[in-house]
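PROTEIN FOLDING TASK:
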Amino acid sequence: MACQITTRNAPGTCRADLPIRTARNLHGDTAGVNPAARRGEARSGFTLVEMLVAVGLVVLMMTLFATIFQIATGAMQTQKGLAENDQRVRLVMNRLRNDLNGIKNDPNDPGRPYRTFRNVIPFGANEPSSVANFNPTDRLGYLYISENNPDDDTDDVLGLTVQYPSTASDQFFGQAAVVLPDQSPGASYGTGGISPGTGYPPNGSTTVPIAASPGSGQSYWPNQPDFDDILGVPNKTGNSPVAEVSYFLRKGTLYRRVLLVRDPNGITPAPKDGTPTDTSGNILSLGIYTGGSRDFWNDFDYSAAYDSLDNVAQPLRFHGTGIPTDSLAYNASGSQNPFALGNPAYRFGFDASTAQVKNGAGVFVTVPSSTYGQPREYVTTTAGATNFIGRFTHAETSDLNFGYPGSITTIPGATPSSPMTSTTRLNYDPISGRTGPPGSLFSGPRSGEDILMTNVLKFDVKVFDPAATTGPDNAYGVAGVDDDNNGTFDDISELGWPGSDDGDFRDIGHLGTTGYYASFGTALVADFDPITTKPQRIYGPTNTPVTSRVSVPNPPPAPLAANYNSFTPLAYPNLTYNYGNIATTYAGITLPTSPPFAPFANRFDTWNPALDFIGDGTNDSPPFRPFSFGADGRPGAANFDDDGNGKVDYVTDPVTGLLTPDPREIGWPNSDDQPAALSAIQIKITFYDVTSNQVREITLVQSLLYTP
């Protein structure tokens, strides 16, 4: 047997021993055995408590990791949603800034577009083009703001004309799907026997193929939208430096509708207006649209209207610029109610309807209807419900049944039958917000092309009103200064004084008792009635002349005491401009207290100086046209009783006993009073992001100050 050497043996010796046992000795006990071995022998696994603790710890750790992962993932989704929102915000802000920009040639961005009505002072009735200090080339087209109900931030509409500088490489582009023939029996499309193709264009809403390219010795009539891009070959696309632009909100979707204003390029002979013609100046055929076989705004992204007032050969008329009859000009024809974008009746979304009446000779003549020039911002259903729509969408106007501006008798089952006529009753879907003929809905093929932003909760447009508040110093005008030099410091006649801190952003037609753009139903001004010879308070915005509706002779007779009564029947305010949310009786007529209110209530417009909407034979001033007192600080001519009512410059307020500007002298002809420009606009857009589950609001404050 082997000898086991141990340290206990004497050196050099060994002893025989039994084999080593690992757990027990010869006596069967564990004496001398390693304690660890005894513990291993004593237990065979984990206890239940230990297992529960271990599992609990593992579950806790997994829960913590899952929570951290969820938080991290949610943060990433939120950041992604915010980034997407920021991208949408930048797009919308850039669109609005560029459209509202008033710098004609921006040195920092030479290709930046600008609004054509740069000097935002509405034309007065009969205002000549040569008014001192006004450059008519900077008051072209229009700027329009519709507030409708000031308590509702979803029913505002912004409309204007926008232009690219002549040096810009960019333009507005739009569809020009159809090449037009002339009106000859053979319907020639141009010279050399050119033909766009067999069965061209197809009827209905079928996509129009690109017209065949010209062969040798052939050419299409050049004065039509498809060739405004100077390419010379059909491509179903037109372009122009000028467009009519509309912003409106409907059922959570913010729309930006763009319609090009034709700009014919190098056409000989030069066309008179935007109507397409052949090389001899004869109007091309638009029969497929006037006859209803195709829909105009499905094929053309161009500004056009149906003109039945001017007795023209072709009532479907394109707007044009850079031509003798320029639709942007302050008065394109010199006649009353001209075909121009300064006339609301011929803009997108307005009523151009007319009526037939007998004149003094018993002959029927065409005159504006009672709704002529009114916006089509609400639709009334056959059941009598009224709903805000803002403007018609591209999905609606591209429907074959829409018809307008090709025809004004297009809506089956509706009376009247033009969708643009304010009194035409249409169907309305409260879920989608879409309109249509009674019993159906418009559903054109170009749905969604005008969408700017979705999930929008509010689109609120406000203007800066210098006379809405007294500002932080709580004083009229500049605190402690006699701004108007009338001997009294900080009196109400100084409210809104230039250079003061007065004013704030307010809705058009806000419910303040003072303000340049306050409601005609709540704002009050002191007045002196020359008939009763007593002071009184009358309704009307601050610094808005009573004589705005009066054709004052120029030069005016002085004094006017003898013939003053001839001016009183047309005193401001009147039925057209009344605020609609407050029941008011005027001339025996009770105004409506529900939409669409009075025709031009709560709207700012820069319309043409030769418009008669009321039908009384005189031209109308737009609803909000406040004045400043000029260098002498007094209404009318300083220290002179302009209107002959016995009061010089000021009248006494019957309530406060304070002197206030005589509203009958404000803006008096040949005085230094000047109409005040709209100086700034504020637009707030509130929207919801489904990715981040957040509601955000963006605010744009855009200066409208004019720089020549």
Q: What stands out?
A: The chain has a mean pLDDT of 83. Helices lie at 35-42, 48-100, 287-290, 296-299, 394-397. The first helix runs from residue 35 to 42.
